[in-house]
Every structure is written in C-alpha cells, then in structure tokens.
C-alpha cells in the first residue's frame, strides 16, 4: 500500500510521489490525504481534509488528534511541492563528487 518507490540509481534515490499519491490519512474519515487536499491546524500541525476538519470544528473546538484548542481561523491549506531529484543533481557526475567529498571527510 506504500506510495514510495525507491530506485537503485543514486540519481533516483528519493521516493517518487505524485499529486494523487497518498501522503497520510485523515484521522476523521480515515480516507487518504493527498497533496491537493491536505489542510492543517496551525497550532499543532495535525492534518485533515478541509471538509472533515471544518465539520469537526462546528461541533468541537479542538484538534481531533491532540485536543489543542482550535477554531476555523487556525486552519491552513498545505502546499506540498513534489520533490524532483533531477533538479537538485543534474548529472551522475555531481552525485559522484558529493559521494567522494563525504568519503574523504567523514570516513
């Protein structure tokens, strides 16, 4: 069920996550959270669907996970950017230089 895929190449060592891949689970409805539908309470950082947390806060003015006081003005939309490892290290040569640096100074 994991959305993480790991690659054998050093250039592809980060996980591949698309905007529709689950990044967690809403504790209120138990449905998957994705990059496009994740909202958080600013006081504690716990994440939910917007619809779920807004309904929850109409009944109970606290976080359903940790019970910190919260109101609708404490909710923010999270903008989760996809990690593109190719933009960080343009070539395998760059990766080899970084690995060589750590081997010289740390091993």
UniProtKB/TrEMBL annotation:
GO process terms (BP): protein ubiquitination; replication fork processing
GO molecular function: ubiquitin protein ligase activity; zinc ion binding
Cellular component terms (Gene Ontology): nucleus; site of DNA damage
Keywords: Metal-binding, Zinc, Zinc-finger
Top-level taxonomic group: Eukaryota
Residue stretches making up the RING-type domain: 26-67
UniProt feature coiled coil, ranges: none
Pfam families in the cross-refs: zf-RING_2 (PF13639)
PANTHER family: E3 UBIQUITIN-PROTEIN LIGASE RFWD3-RELATED (PTHR46569:SF1), E3 UBIQUITIN-PROTEIN LIGASE TRAIP (PTHR46569)
Protein name: RING-type domain-containing protein
């Amino acid at each position: 069920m994991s959305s993480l895929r790991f690659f054998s190449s050093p250039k592809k060592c980060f996980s591949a996550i698309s905007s529709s891949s689950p990044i967690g689970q809403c504790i209120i409805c138990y449905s998957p959270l994705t990059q496009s539908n994740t909202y958080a309470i600013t006081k504690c950082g716990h994440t939910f669907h917007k619809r779920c947390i807004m309904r929850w806060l109409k009944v109970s003015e606290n976080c359903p996970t940790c019970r910190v006081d919260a109101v609708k003005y404490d909710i923010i939309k999270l903008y989760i950017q996809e990690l593109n490892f190719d933009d960080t290290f343009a070539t395998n040569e760059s990766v080899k230089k970084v690995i060589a640096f750590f081997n010289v100074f740390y091993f």
